[in-house]
Amino acid sequence: MRSAWLEDVRTVMERDPAVKSTWEAIWCYPGVQALWLHRAAHLLYRRRLYFLARLVATGSRMATGIDIHPGAQIGRRVFIDHGMGVVIGETAVVGDDVSMYQGVTLGGTGKDAGKRHPTVGDRVLLAAGAIVLGNISIGDDAKIGAGTVVVRSVPAGATVVGAPGRVVSMWGQALEREDAQARVMELERRVGELEARLGALEEKREGKRRGSTHRLA
Known about the structure:
The protein is of the alpha/beta class.
């Protein structure tokens, strides 16, 4: 954990030209403080000390203005700049080298149980006010524009803007709107196929379990 803490400070020094010293990064950057407190809260959460974990998370929110549920999984070298109003839900997963700014929300839709928050890949940029909702995936190296609302999975390397969000470029190459929509539809089709296969496997496994239980009875 100590190495992760040191990386948090180095990340600020590398990505924010406004920082002037290590002490400034430690004492004056709420994003760093929120990540440190979250690591402690997450450790308590994994040990099923849920109440203590929530106490630490609540104290962190009061001190930093950043609300990270202790169950969220946060990668390494994550940079939360400014940070006021950032909300990260319980089942959210954030990869390595992610950058996010004030007002970002990784939330649920209020309709699902279990995994109900986004999974964010590595090196993703979440600009100020970006809202990402539901059990969806944001691919590696994607960029989510300021104020964008995302409710569908985003492929790797995509830049998404607008409300609702739409893909406007892939790996830095601008797309025509029709081309972008076609790619998103293809991605949705593939995700639907994977979900259907997963559901069939789960039904098959449940059937085998019930059959085994019946034979034992």
